[in-house]
Each structure stands twice: as structure tokens, then as C-alpha cells.
Design a protein that fits this description.
Layout (H helix, E strand, L loop, with lengths): L10 E4 L6 E2 L1 H14 L7 H5 L6 H11 L6 H15 L5 E2 L3 H10 L4 E4 L7 H8 L7 E3 L12 H10 L6 E5 L2 H10 L3 E4 L16 E3 L10
Parallel strand pairs: 1-4, 1-6, 4-5, 6-7, 7-8
Antiparallel strand pairs: 2-3
Helix pairs in contact: 1-4, 3-4
């Protein structure tokens, strides 16, 4: 982690997949079960990992394009969502340091929210399964608003729910989707190195910090 000064922070907004939770294996399995149902070839988890972050519709559209399928997206989404629900709690895991960091932030009376492109209905059961639901007062999902990250609106909405101006909140994410949303919302952002950055050059992204472990967030706020 490169050294930065403390950030004046009154609330923290976290991305979910790739930031708090490693769910790539479960998302990949949902994609592959959907492809198999369509008589299309499975793809490696590493490939699906590179597709995660821009919402389920983009994920499925990318999978269909990769498979060379011209099936209309609208006809495939119900099958994918069925598999997504079925695989949601298959093997997700918290990244190292997540529980300790959330506990420390709560001890400082910093309110926290989730802002993710995952469908909002899938978030509470995942948080409950992993034992971290109690830390978050609000959840903004990929279908909570007409817009999703990297648009500013989801982060602005999360800040409003927390009762804080955007500039007083800190966004913590792992990808260009999170970086773009924070920049559009004029919100400070810290990026984690261990998530699903896709083709983002983390060190050249202009974030306040790039951290290797979520516990490295604590000295910054």
C-alpha cells in the first residue's frame, strides 16, 4: 500500500463481489449451468472472473457472445437467474481481514453501506450466510435504480441513504466499474488489489490508495 494521509470520512460504501466476498466460483458455476442448459460449452472460472462487475445482463450477454450464440438475451436471463439463485451460497468466502475491518469501522461509529451491481434481492441472503449482514445499514443493488455503476447515481443514492454528502463518504472497490462510479460521484475511492480488476491498471488509477488486505483501510479513515 502506498502511503496517503488520512481521509476525512463519515461513512464507508463497499462494493461486494471482489471487495468483501470472493464469489467468482459460484458466479462461474451459474454461468456454466446456464450454458449447459443451452447446449453450449462450459468456460473456465478464470474467464468468467474477467467478466464480473458490470451487472448480470452484461455478464450473460458476454457469455453468449463468447459462446457464439445469437439467442436473445431476454430469453436466457430467466434461466441464468434461476442458476444464480441456486449457486449463490455454494462456496462464497470472505476475503482475509473483512470481519475484523468491519468490526473496527463499526467501533468507530462509521455507518456502512453496500453498493453493488449484483441484483439487490441476492445481497441480504449472501451477507447473512457470511455473517456480516449486521454491519450494513443500506444496500444499493444493480437493479435498485435505473442506473448502475459506473454511473454516479448508485453511489449518490447510497450516500443519501447514509445521510452524508458524497465527498464525506469513502468508496472501497476493486474494478474500473467502482473507480468510474466514484469519480462520477466525486467520492474518494480506495481500491483493493485482490479482487476482479479485469484490465484496470490499479496503480495508475488515481485512487487514494491500493491495498492488499482490507485491514489496510483502517489507518486511512
Amino acid at each position: 500500500m502506498r502511503s496517503v494521509d488520512n481521509v476525512a470520512t463519515s461513512a464507508v460504501i463497499f462494493d461486494l463481489d471482489g471487495t468483501l466476498v470472493d464469489s467468482a466460483g459460484d458466479i462461474a458455476e451459474a454461468v456454466n449451468r446456464c450454458l449447459e442448459e443451452l447446449a453450449l460449452a462450459r468456460v473456465p472460472e478464470a474467464r468468467v472472473r474477467s467478466w464480473i462487475g458490470e451487472g448480470v445482463r452484461n455478464l450473460v450477454a458476454t457469455a453468449l457472445k463468447h459462446a457464439g450464440s445469437d439467442r436473445p438475451l431476454e430469453t436466457v436471463m430467466p434461466a441464468f437467474m434461476r442458476h444464480y439463485h441456486a449457486c449463490l451460497l455454494r462456496s462464497p468466502r470472505l476475503y482475509a481481514g473483512v470481519p475484523e475491518t468491519l468490526q473496527a469501522l463499526r467501533a468507530r461509529a462509521l455507518p456502512m453501506a453496500i453498493c453493488t451491481n449484483k441484483p439487490v434481492a441476492l445481497v441480504p441472503p449472501l451477507l447473512a450466510h457470511l455473517g456480516i449482514a449486521e454491519f450494513f445499514t443500506h444496500i444499493v443493488g444493480g437493479d435498485s435504480l435505473p442506473q448502475r455503476k459506473p454511473a454516479a447515481e448508485p453511489l449518490l443514492h447510497a450516500a443519501a441513504l447514509l445521510g452524508q454528502p458524497p465527498g464525506a463518504c469513502l468508496m472501497v472497490g476493486d474494478s474500473a466499474t467502482d473507480l468510474g462510479a466514484a469519480n462520477h460521484a466525486h467520492m474518494p475511492v480506495v481500491l483493493v488489489r485482490y479482487g476482479y480488476p479485469r484490465d484496470l491498471d490499479l496503480d495508475a488509477a488515481g485512487a487514494l490508495a491500493v491495498i492488499d488486505d482490507l485491514r489496510e483501510l483502517l489507518p486511512l479513515v
